[in-house]
Design brief:
This protein is α+β, with helices and mostly antiparallel strands and 503 residues long. The protein is built from 22 helices and seven strands. The longest helix has 29 residues. It binds protoporphyrin IX containing FE. Protoporphyrin IX containing FE binds next to helix 8, helix 16 and helix 17. InterPro entries: Cyt_P450 (IPR001128), Cyt_P450_E_grp-I (IPR002401), Cyt_P450_sf (IPR036396), Cytochrome_P450_monoxygenase (IPR050121). Pathway: Secondary metabolite biosynthesis; terpenoid biosynthesis.
């Protein structure tokens, strides 16, 4: 489970990313609701899917602990199509969904919320008042307020920060020139320093030693996966919230790290706001980062449209953690592909050099670099940092399909009725390798697909390039636009040969 990651009714609200549609019941939903009430049998059980090797683990070890990500999942998709059933721990039925029509429906519908493990993890680490911890009206309000830090103008202001981080990265690479290095911790540090600068106006030195140590502990906990954790997760998902809230006080290393992370985020958020308040009282401009913008809005307009200081502080853990390893891993996978394909590296370097020459020391037009943009889209398509999202149906609901599905009973259906509580895996990595969507070469890393005309079949989903890396709907990742610019800047500025790669 990638629990570190990391939705609104107002059609006029301008959030970054995908248009926000929190749909009222559609005619489709109304007609199917009556149909569904007539057929309360468990349809999910009759959806085809792979055999389960064990009652205890179901297909979970194959899904999450295969030697290379997708060893089983991509094969299952080839055999069973974009909507199939797998077994979770203790015989639980889970749906694996990569059908674009179904995904679009789920992401924009009010009939689904985070699954229980994800909800508990969000509450524990980010807090119940964080943007991911709140729902409905509160979510819409916090999301609208946070959007000041993610507008096109704000993202343009971040470019010097991205450039500075890329420069530091170059210096670190130069120090290790000719030697083999582990690039992942360097990238993680680079993304943390960028996020800290644009969110809080703080450098990593300002964050302090204890924060830095805890931050890397938390990322290690979040990215480690084992059979024991999979079972613990499945048991945890069945426990009520109060058990989780109590369990966090256990004297284990993980619980201690999470307790420390919450305390440090709270202290940090309060300290940043105190300093910004004092700076504003001295007449200084505090509109230079996300927290400065949020505080300034609150000082000028204390209506319900702005966040209170406590609400701003409550966003510290999520904004500092959600984008760090997701961005670093995207960069790392891009570098792996560059290392494997020297010709691509040379062509990219030629495009970067000619664009930099044309800019003549002025601002660089990243949009005018087709190969760089194609390379970034292809890296995102092949290697989504969050491979699977988790949702639960909050009531009995019917999910539409692109085509139809033949059940194990032989019946063909074009809509899947699911019961309240049904667990759904939004299979983003599978969707991004769906041959019916991307073509027969969907499994190949091929940036040229983005340059050779229409890239995908069917209606667009997701906020960027028809990709689901940032999911979609009201909970689309708000960092989407800044990340894509940040990736352009980093690859442009870190003009270094990647000579080889080992894992
Ligand atoms: C390549 C980098 C990134 C990827 C792939 C990514 C992916 C995602 C995904 C998939 C979600 C939705 C999770 C869900 O609803 O299940 C999400 C939510 C979120 N992301 Fe990102 N993210 C990235 C970087 C960032 C950055 C840099 C920030 C901010 C500094 C950020 C802040 C957030 C926040 C605040 C949410 C919660 C949104 C909400 O619930 O309304 N992310 N991200």
């Amino acid at each position: 489970m990638l629990f570190l990651l990391g939705r609104a009714d107002d059609p006029n609200a301008t959030y970054t990313g995908c248009p926000i549609v929190q749909s009222p019941p559609t005619s489709f939903e109304r007609s199917w609701t009556s149909h569904f009430t007539l057929r309360r049998r468990n349809t999910v059980r009759n959806i085809p899917g792979p055999a389960s090797p064990s009652w205890l683990f179901g297909n979970m070890l194959q899904l999450y602990l295969s030697p290379t990500y997708g060893d089983y999942e991509f094969d299952w998709q080839r055999i069973y199509g974009p909507f199939y059933r797998i077994k979770g721990c203790f015989g639980q039925d889970k749906l694996m969904i990569s059908d674009p029509v179904s995904l679009q429906y789920i992401l924009n519908s009010r009939h689904f919320k985070f699954g229980p493990s994800m909800e508990n993890a969000i509450h524990l680490l980010y807090g119940i008042d964080s943007i991911m911890g709140v729902n409905e009206e509160d979510h819409k309000r916090i999301r609208a307020a946070l959007s000041v830090g993610f507008t096109a103008a704000a993202v343009r202001d971040y470019i010097p920060v991205f450039e500075k981080a890329a420069q530091t990265l170059i210096e670190q690479l130069e120090e290790s020139s000719g030697k083999s290095i582990n690039i992942c911790p360097l990238l993680s540090l680079a993304t943390l320093s960028t996020i800290s600068e644009v969110v809080l106006g703080y450098s990593t030195e300002d964050l302090g030693e204890e924060f830095m140590k805890n931050n890397f502990q938390i990322l290690t906990i979040a990215s480690s996966q084992s059979a024991t954790q999979i079972v613990a997760d499945a048991i945890g998902a069945r426990l009520p919230g109060w058990v989780w809230r109590g369990a966090i006080h256990l004297p284990t290393a993980t619980c201690k790290a999470i307790r420390t992370a919450k305390r440090l985020a709270n202290e940090l958020g309060n300290q940043v706001l105190r300093e910004k308040r004092e700076a504003a009282e001295q007449g200084l401009d505090i509109n230079t980062d996300l927290y400065g913008r949020l505080l300034d809005l609150h000082r000028l307009d204390k209506t319900k449209n702005t966040l209170t200081e406590a609400e701003i502080v409550a966003q510290t853990a999520i904004t500092m953690i959600a984008g760090q390893d997701t961005t670093a891993n995207t960069l790392a996978f891009g570098l792996v592909e560059l290392a494997k394909t020297p010709e691509l590296q040379d062509n990219l370097r030629a495009e970067i050099h000619s664009t930099l020459r044309a800019s003549d020391g002025g601002s660089v037009s990243y949009d005018n670099m087709p190969l760089l943009n194609a390379f970034i889209k292809e890296s995102l398509r092949m290697f989504p940092a969050e491979a699977i999202g988790e949702r639960t149906a909050v009531e009995d609901v019917v999910i539409p399909l692109t085509g139809s599905l033949t059940m194990t009973t032989g019946e063909r259906i074009s809509h899947v009725p699911v019961r309240k509580g049904q667990n759904l895996n939004l299979a983003m990595a599978s969707y991004q390798r769906l041959e019916s969507r991307w073509g027969e070469d969907a499994q190949e890393f091929k940036p040229s697909r983005w340059l050779d005309g229409p890239t995908f079949e069917g209606e667009a989903v997701g906020p960027y390039a028809n990709l689901l890396n940032f999911l979609g709907g009201p909970r689309t990742c708000p960092g989407c636009d800044s990340i894509t610019i940040g990736l352009c800047v980093t690859f442009t500025d870190s003009d270094h040969h990647v000579d080889g790669v080992s894992r």
